[in-house]
Amino acid sequence: MSARPAKHSLTLRGHRTSVSLEDEFWHAFRQIAESRGKTINALAIEIDEARKTDIGLASAIRVFVLNHFRAQSQ
Fold this sequence. Notes:
two-stranded antiparallel sheet, 55% helix, globular
């Protein structure tokens, strides 16, 4: 398990941004995007549009991934 976040670039509506997530979250995020037939950029846009403005994108992605797998285990 990697405790240090890894920074990756995403493109959201034509703008580049960097997001730092732990490797496990990057892997899960890619897995979810692939299962939905989307790119990670497209899925990040959906998450970005749905999040509250006081929540950072990295945190919103982590919560999205957690909620996705919680829903699957029920």
